[in-house]
Design goal:
Blueprint (H helix, E strand, L loop, with lengths): L2 E3 L5 H10 L4 E4 L12 E2 L1 E4 L2 H16 L2 H7 L1 E4 L3 E5 L4 E5 L4 E2 L5 E2 L2 E6 L6 E3 L2 E5 L2 E5 L6 E5 L4 E3 L2 E4 L1 E10 L4 H20 L2 H18 L3
Antiparallel strand pairs: 1-14, 2-4, 3-7, 4-6, 5-17, 6-17, 7-15, 8-9, 10-14, 10-17, 11-16, 12-13, 12-15
């Protein structure tokens, strides 16, 4: 299941992020990739001074975890500190699947991946996030401040930037629900609850609440 959050970050948020990364040092992004992905990864990641990094992560993660669609789609157990990356002209990230287990010390399972677009799409050519799905490829190039959530099992790539620079933040989520199919059912039920609650259908809402709670109890992986 692929979900898009429009306007996750506001214009003021994006201005603050640009201010916080202005003293960042760029390094070869392939050093953070797994042994397979390293061969096809050609981007830059940012080393940011500790104070600025703490402020940056507080802002970005704060916006994510307070978002209702994120909570509904991910049913999160934990979220990783983001990586901040740049794709300059000529850079790309070839077809790959994200590492299943991530972290240093405290390990976590990557169930869902999140990419947050940090600059306007007219500022660069190319640079689409390309999902390789069973029914064909799907390309995404979102407005600044928007985020896309997708299963970490998905093969995907970033097409070559042919002009300008693409700025993104990426992070990963371990869900309490391991199965993407189960998460989709629960997300649909959660949305149904919202709609029924608006229409004040008390009996239907009660039955869906009952089913939702019991499915979470049955499927959760804690």
């Amino acid at each position: 299941m692929i979900s898009i959050i429009d306007n996750l970050l506001s214009t003021n948020d994006l201005l603050k992020i640009n201010e916080l990364v202005k003293n960042a040092v760029e390094y070869d992004g392939s050093t953070s990739a797994g042994s397979i992905a390293r061969r096809v990864k050609n981007n830059l990641e940012l080393t940011i001074p500790e104070y600025e990094l703490n402020q940056l992560n507080k802002l970005v993660i704060g916006r994510i975890i307070c978002n209702s669609l994120y909570q509904q789609v991910c049913l999160p157990l934990r979220i990783a500190a983001p990586f901040y990356a740049r794709y300059k002209t000529g850079m790309s990230y070839g077809s790959h699947t994200d590492n299943p287990i991530m972290g240093q010390g405290a390990l976590y399972r990557s169930d869902l991946s999140i990419s947050i677009f940090l600059n306007e799409k007219h500022e660069y050519n190319g640079g689409e996030l390309v999902m390789e799905l069973e029914n064909g490829e799907q390309r995404f190039k979102l407005d600044a401040g928007a985020a896309i959530i997708y299963p970490s099992t998905t093969r995907h790539r970033v097409s070559k930037v042919t002009h300008g620079q693409r700025n993104v933040a990426v992070t990963w989520v371990q869900s309490i629900i391991r199965s993407d199919a189960h998460r989709k059912i629960l997300s649909d039920l959660a949305r149904s609850r919202e709609l029924l609650n608006t229409e004040q259908c008390a009996e239907s809402l009660s039955l869906i609440d009952h089913s939702y709670a019991n499915l979470v109890r049955l499927w959760s992986d804690l």
